Amino acid sequence: MRDSKDPDGPVLLVTRAALRSAVDAARASR
Length: 30
What we know:
Protein name: DUF397 domain-containing protein
Oligomer: single chain
InterPro entries: DUF397
Low-confidence stretches: none
Domain DUF397: 1-27
Organism: Actinomadura physcomitrii
Pfam family, one: DUF397
């Protein structure tokens, strides 16, 4: 668990979550 030394880790997780939420919203809107 190298979160403090790897700032890209949490950022990637957040971006992935955002992308997933966006995809889910797009599917729900249809």
